[in-house]
Amino acid sequence: MSAHELVIERLMDAPAGALWKAYTGHLNEWFCPRPWRAEVIEMDLRPGGRSSVTMYGPNGEVAPNDGVYLEVVPERLIVFTDAFTRGWDPAGAPFMVGSFEFEPQGDKTLFRGRARHWTQEARAQHETMGFQQGWGVMAEQWEAVAKRIAAEAADA
Fold it and tell me: What pTM does this model have?
């Protein structure tokens, strides 16, 4: 683990394929802790593709999350950053490189969410903002959506 990295890890009760489908088709259902909500603006899942999600808070807050995907391995790995915008244009002061890793464990998946920061100060800021709680709730909501998807596929 990098000195500037924050990590969460969960054994999710859903197969990697269902987690992938929850990411690619249902991100708005789990991406941010309720009562916040998320709107996918663009999801171009390929290296260099645009990632744009806007989060809306219960008191009128608007938090755009724009960046690019750096690496995408279906059902295994998604790496993204806010350091660039579409076309590899620098986005100003970068905050992090994030990744979602999926390691199949039978019917379950070991999930790792990583946030790597350029500086210790940025890491500390993210930790103070509630990284563990926020990403933890996100993981719980993601797992619930993936479990529903897996159950629907089993019933079909």
Answer: 0.92
